[in-house]
Write a structure and sequence with these properties.
Strand order of the largest sheet: 1-2
Largest sheet: 2 strands, antiparallel
Low-confidence stretches: none
Mean pLDDT: 93
Helix content: 25-40%
Structural class: alpha+beta
Radius of gyration: 16 Å
Length: about 120
């Protein structure tokens, strides 16, 4: 997905160009990988699955569990197929890519988002 580019009026648009960045330069991607700041090299460095299990219970109170965009990630937004708060029993990983939405759907910025989303849907199918 990070490599997906669409041509919009001669300019290539990527997720990084259209994603929601509420606290800086990093996209607010909702994924379990956020417990590792979206960097696979951090998986072993942070302690692997044990770190994720820890973050399921401490996602709002521990700095090492904050996302790359410096916000907490509720595990219920990145996992599925579990009962109650039994996140370690999840049977599905969810990934959500929030993008900038425009009130004016005819704006250039809105058209960029729509074109990228169409390409993403085509890729996902």
């Amino acid at each position: 997905v990070d490599e997906l580019r669409v041509n919009h009026s001669g300019t290539f648009v990527s997720l990084t160009d259209i994603c929601l960045k509420p606290l800086g330069e990093d996209c607010a991607t909702q994924s379990i990988l956020q417990y590792f700041q979206m960097d696979l090299d951090n998986y072993d460095y942070f302690g692997g699955i044990d770190h994720a299990l820890y973050c399921f219970q401490h996602y709002t109170s521990t700095e090492s569990c904050l996302s790359a965009f410096k916000a907490p990630l509720d595990p219920s937004t990145a996992l599925g197929g579990f009962s109650g708060n039994n996140f370690s029993e999840a049977t599905a990983f969810l990934i959500t890519y929030p993008v900038n939405n425009m009130v004016d759907q005819s704006s250039d910025a809105s058209r960029k988002v729509v074109e990228w989303e169409r390409a993403f849907i085509k890729l996902a199918k």
